[in-house]
Write a structure and sequence with these properties.
It is built from 28 helices and 35 strands. β4 and β5 form a beta hairpin. α12 packs antiparallel against α13 and α19 packs across α22. The longest helix has 35 residues. The protein is elongated. The relative contact order is 0.06.
Length: 962
């Protein structure tokens, strides 16, 4: 008990804690709880931040530097003189500027309105942010952005532009990181190169201060901006769409401009407050007429030169792809080409072309004038054209016509379209290789006679000429002048050979030859699988003008990257394909195509023959789906094509079929007027080794004593013919069915001809046999006579006349009648029915005198005679049929004429055969005086019997009766 009392007493006497200790304890616990709260809040905030940025990578210094350095920079295209064509296709205009080139006035204006403590904060400006919040909450009239320039840059480069709370946290953290790795000057430069400023006067969206100065004020040098203009530009990035004085077409927007002007006043006020400008400068800037200083409205290059910009883009992208592939084949597919195109459009490249602006504009002045073309067809559409002009010495493309209306058809008809070349292929794949190998010279003789080609679907095919006739033996010059098909086909198929012809064409830049074309026997006329482009064909002709040296045509002279480094420079690679002598001979032959041949429209419309010589070749395809003219002067080559977009639509009128020639002449006239210095050379220089010779017009060889027809022309001295004219001879022959034959014994001499005849590579008799053999296998063909050349009757006879004497006199001609007019008597008859008739003789009696032979007509050469007849004469005629044995059977006589005809002589007065007569005049008994008859003048004698039936005697015909 005592112990318990003692414990209790001890407890009761324990001293009480002071109030200070109690307060301290409370403070301690509050502190602990506060620290815990802060830690908890911090953890919560950290957790929130961590959750926000958990998918956002921590960017290294290298990554930040690379991304900040990346800039989509606008590229530009230039004419050959360095004048801009325009910016490459994009809706944006971006131009880089270095910090050292940014004037202080621009820096002051931008910082005054966007971030006046830029050089003081470390990426985030707390006071600025709070100020922006206050201005927002109180809806103050003057509001500044809460984001620093660093934050704006971070947002534009790394983050979405959507306004979300998550983005704001990321933006702040990124800003702190940017400030760690980048200097203030680097941040400011990147900002001024990347932010948008609205639309420029040409409608492009301008990005960066340099593009903005050019797009809005037309100023390239930023140092030339005044305070008012700098303040105007500095105010635009806050709301570029609302402040843009121009719309997407470059048209002025008054309302937006006024908003931008209010914004400029705010910038100027902030600059004044920040002591960046003085009060006088402030007043001067307010008074400056910004509107008047705006750049004038201009169209985008893709509106002004749409075809040219698209072609520049296409070719330059191909070059970039080729460079990426180490100049190997760049045809790696559409995806790689598209990547190269995007690189071109966004990489700030400057592409310098060979296009001469004056030439290009002159050419388009012709193509854009609708009066130069046929009216648009409802079914066929727009009559299209394409042209290209190339510098002969370099291959540089000086100008082109890509089509008539980009809005109707955006395809480049000059470089991308492939069409059949027609006769413009003849010089390239026939005449040039033949001249080069010495197979022909301009005076060489070619046979314009049919060839029969196998045709799987039709059995056989017999090519024709455009004039629907065959002219036989002609010179190579004449054949080319008149664009005869058969001589060109024979050169292509037989002399040169298809394989060699296409190998030659490929050396001249014809890139579209396909495997199937090696079996196309009519390929030289344009019968290719695909055809050729205007560029390729013009390029090939320019090699002739360049004296046989081929330079591949090109349009891109050089490409410079955004740092000013030349990454591509065109390098010429001239290649001699044929000799200067061949080039000159071909040029001279093409000269006469214009002066004497199918180039008549050029001959009539080209105005500068005296000063600037030109030569050329026409071409057209089946049914005139395409028409061409390829021509050149010593300095340039111009190729023109006309047709419709769809090849099924043809050019039907005479004007349309000459349209390529007409446009060629108009383009040449226009270019010479605008750019005469392109044509310094006044003649085609004749090289050494060209001589003039006179040769036989029968064979193109050296004449002999027998030669009576000659032709004089120029030759390559190496290939002047040495052989004599052994292809001609003197022969006596008879012509039947257009063919010369060896006459049979007994054939009367008056039906034979004795003159010079010519040996052909393929005798006419052989050609006839081939034609007759082919006809049964052909679905349709012309009559045999259509295919015989005009000079078929001059061939050396190789076979005997196929007609044989049937043992009896021929039947007489019937239905003889005479008509008069202009001092002529025309005697018509129906031919004899006998198969062995070789011809007909016409006899005439004048004023009752004896009948005399006045003319002969070979069988097959017609059924009428024409004889002179004086108005005072009374003439009577009859026609006799003569067979191969010399047997003759006469028709009834017809006549009429003078007033009172004299009575016919009595039988005893008639001179009988054998009596001496005037040399060269046959006098024979009149049929009216045959024994046993006493018919009066004009009546017929007894007539021969035809198939057992007596023929009614012919009766006299009154003068003038049909």
């Amino acid at each position: 008990m005592a112990q318990e009392n003692m414990k209790k007493t001890a407890t009761d006497i324990r001293p009480r804690r002071s109030w200070l200790r109690r307060v301290g304890s409370v403070v301690k616990w509050m502190f602990i709880l506060g620290v815990m709260g802060v830690l908890f809040a911090g953890g919560a905030v950290g957790g929130l931040v961590a959750s926000i940025v958990k998918d956002d990578p921590v960017r290294s210094e290298q990554t930040i530097q690379e991304r900040i350095g990346e800039n989509v920079v606008t590229g530009f295209a230039y004419f050959r003189d360095g004048m801009p064509i325009g910016q490459l296709r994009t809706e944006e205009d971006r131009r880089l500027v270095a910090f050292k080139d940014i004037p202080q006035i621009i820096i002051d204006a931008v910082l005054a309105i966007e971030d006046n403590r830029f050089y003081e904060h470390h990426g985030v400006d707390i006071s600025g942010t709070m100020r922006a919040v206050k201005q927002k909450l109180l809806n103050e009239s003057v509001q500044t952005g809460g984001s620093t320039l660093t934050q704006q840059l971070a947002r534009r480069v790394f983050l979405s532009l959507d306004k979300t709370e998550d983005r704001k946290v990321k933006e702040i953290l990124l800003s702190l990181r940017l400030e760690r790795f980048l200097s203030k000057d680097e941040i400011l430069t990147a900002y001024l190169n990347k932010v948008p400023f609205g639309n420029g006067a040409n409608g492009y969206n301008v990005y960066g201060i340099k593009a903005a100065a050019k797009g809005l004020f037309g100023i390239d040098d930023l140092d030339k901006l005044n305070i008012a203009q700098a303040a105007y530009l500095a105010g635009l990035p806050q709301l570029p769409s609302a402040y843009s004085a121009f719309n997407g077409y470059g048209e002025f927007n008054e309302a937006a401009f006024n908003r931008a002007l209010d914004r400029q006043h705010l910038v100027l006020r902030r600059m004044l407050e920040e002591n960046k400008i003085t009060p006088p400068q402030y007043q001067e800037a307010l008074a400056f007429d910004i509107k008047k200083s705006l750049a004038p409205h201009t169209k985008k290059a893709y509106v002004t030169f749409p075809y040219l910009m698209m072609e520049t883009e296409r070719q330059a992208a191909g070059i970039l792809l080729s460079l990426a592939n180490n100049n190997q084949d760049s045809s790696k597919g559409a995806s790689q080409l598209e990547e190269a195109r995007q690189q071109l459009l966004t990489g700030g490249y400057r592409v310098y072309t060979t296009i001469d602006k004056k030439v290009y504009s002159a050419m388009h002045s012709i193509s854009e004038d609708s009066s130069n073309f046929t009216k648009k067809s409802k079914t066929k559409g727009l009559e299209q054209t394409a042209g290209m002009m190339i510098d002969n010495k370099t291959g540089a493309i000086l100008g082109m016509i890509e089509g008539r209306d980009f809005n109707v058809e955006s395809m480049n008809y000059a470089t991308q379209m492939v069409r059949q070349p027609g006769s413009t292929m003849k010089p390239i794949a026939a005449y040039l290789p033949a001249l080069e190998e010495g197979l022909i010279q301009p005076a060489s003789i070619l046979d314009d006679a049919p060839i029969i080609l196998k045709d799987g679907s039709k059995g056989f095919h017999i090519p024709k000429n455009a004039n629907n006739r065959y002219q036989g033996l002609v010179t190579a010059r004449y054949a080319l002048n008149n664009s005869l098909n058969l001589p060109a086909l024979k050169l292509f198929d037989e002399k040169v050979g298809i394989k060699n012809a296409w190998a030659f064409a490929k050396k001249l830049g014809i890139t579209t030859i396909q495997d199937e074309d090696y079996s196309a026997q009519t390929g030289v006329l344009g019968g290719l699988k695909y055809g050729v482009s205007v560029e390729d064909l013009t390029n090939a002709y320019s090699a002739i003008a360049n004296k046989g040296v081929f330079n591949d045509a090109y349009m891109i002279e050089k490409i410079v990257d955004s740092k000013g480094k030349i990454i591509y420079q065109h390098k010429a690679n001239p290649e001699r394909v044929f000799s200067e002598q061949t080039a000159y001979l071909m040029t001279d032959m093409l000269r006469t195509v214009i002066t004497n041949g199918t180039g008549s429209t050029v001959r009539s419309n080209y105005k500068h023959f005296k000063d600037i010589p030109v030569v050329g070749k026409t071409g057209s395809t089946q049914n005139y789906a395409d028409v061409w003219f390829m021509g050149y002067s010593p300095d340039i080559t111009l190729g023109m094509w006309v047709g419709y977009k769809e090849q099924i639509n043809t050019l039907t009128t005479k004007t349309q079929r000459k349209q390529a020639q007409a446009l060629w002449a108009k383009v040449m006239n226009a270019v010479i007027e605008k750019k005469p210095d392109l044509f310094p050379t006044q003649k085609f220089d004749q090289p050494d080794g060209i001589v003039k010779e006179t040769v036989s017009a029968y064979s193109g060889k050296q004449p002999t004593s027998l030669t009576d027809k000659f032709t004089t022309d120029i030759f390559n001295k190496k290939f002047v013919p040495k052989d004599s004219d052994d292809g001609i001879s003197h022969a006596k022959y008879i012509t039947y069915g257009g063919v010369n034959y060896i006459p049979r014994d007994g054939t009367p001499d008056d039906f034979l001809k004795e003159r010079i005849v010519v040996s052909r590579e393929k005798p006419i008799e052989e050609l006839i046999k081939e034609l007759k053999a082919a006809f049964p296998s052909m679905r349709e063909h012309e009559p045999l006579g259509y295919y015989l050349p005009a000079d078929a009757k001059t061939g050396v006879p190789t076979e005997v006349d196929p007609r044989e004497d049937n043992g009896s006199a021929p039947t007489a001609p019937r239905n003889v009648e005479v008509s008069y007019g202009s001092g002529k008597a025309v005697i018509r008859f129906t031919q004899s029915g006998s198969p062995d008739v070789v011809g007909y003789r016409l006899y005439r009696s004048v004023n009752g005198g004896p009948f005399q032979k006045v003319d002969v007509l070979l069988a097959g050469d017609g059924t009428s005679f024409t004889a002179d007849n004086s108005a005072s004469d009374y003439a009577v005629f009859y026609v006799a049929a003569v067979d191969v044995a010399g047997n003759e059977t006469a028709s009834g006589s017809v006549g009429g004429g003078a007033p009172t005809p004299e009575p016919s002589p009595s039988p005893e007065d008639i001179l009988l055969p054998g009596i001496e007569t005037t040399p060269g005049v046959d006098i024979v008994p009149s049929p009216s005086a045959s024994p046993g008859t006493s018919d009066g003048p004009g009546t017929s004698p007894s007539t021969a019997v035809d198939s057992g039936t007596a023929i009614d005697p012919g009766t006299a015909v009154d003068p003038g009766r049909p």
